[in-house]
Amino acid sequence: MPLYTRTGDEGITWCFFGEGKPVRVPKDHPVLEFYGALDEANSFIGLARSSLASYGLEGEIDKALERLQRLLFNIGFSLTPRGRRVSEDDVEELEKLSDRFYGEPLRRFVLPYGSLKVSSLHVARSVLRRAERRLVTLKREGYSVDPLLIKLLNRASDMLFAAAIALARQEGSISEV
To answer: Which domain holds residue 104?
Structure first.
């Protein structure tokens, strides 16, 4: 069986969300925009992970990023008929990781700059913020959105920022504004 199905060649695809059965929607449907932003963020997290060492702070961040990648899939699944696959425990874990990586609070804004791994985390963070905005749009438009999902995306982007700051501090590439 080939990878391609040709069913989306007209800009329409199947979408699973809510309690109902799968429906055909345009590929720019708000739910698909949300899923797309999650996918992009997950890909940038993977890019960052590919340049991390497996020991020390980088090894610890790599493990946290792998858990985050799996959590992002569960967040996406939570919009489908499969139901909620996340919990408040996930929020607590992200908060603990953010606290661990952030360290001494910044006194000024920083440029999203540094090595490939640091910059990839900043891009992942900004794309995850877009996913968060798309989820808020879905909620505002009347879709059933668990408030926990918005909270998780907020904490996840905080954790990515904290990890980027920790790595930038380690390599001495923090540029304050």
So the answer is: 27-171
177 part of a folded domain: no
Q: Convert the pLDDT of each residue in 46-95 to its tens digit.
A: 999 999 999 999 999 999 999 999 999 999 988 887 777 899 999 999 99
Q: Tell me the three-class secondary structure of 142-164, residue by residue.
A: CCCCCHHHHHHHHHHHHHHHHHH
Residue 174 dihedral angles phi and psi, to the nearest 5°: -75, 125
Helix, coil or strand: residue 91: helix
Residue 84, pLDDT score = 75
Distance CA 89, CA 99 (A): 15
Please state the domain count of the chain: 1
The pTM of this model reads 0.92
Longest dimension (CA), the chain: 56
d(CA 58, CA 177): 26
